[in-house]
Fold this protein.
Amino acid sequence: MRPSKAAYSRNLPIRRGLSETEAAIYLSFSPSFFHRLVDLGVMPRPRIAGGRRIWDVEELDVAFRALPREGGEETPFGVDGGNSWTDYE
């Protein structure tokens, strides 16, 4: 008997591709707020694999680091100051 997908995924430190809900949770956002940020171009659009919408963890990290900081610091840690995910496409 083959182990299930869930059994395999429990042993991985983190998955590379996340569903919309998983991506929202990964960033500590509600799914509705994350969806709104995707619509606004602040967060990346998903990749498509076999009809499934999947968010790349590395792209989420880049978009998260590009969010503005409280107090107005524009370019933290070498980020180039882009205002939306579309600046990286």
In short: The first helix runs from residue 5 to 10. The domain at 15-68 is CATH 1.10.1660.10 (Multidrug-efflux Transporter Regulator; Chain: A; Domain 2). The longest strand covers residues 52-56. Strands lie at 17-18, 47-49, 52-56.
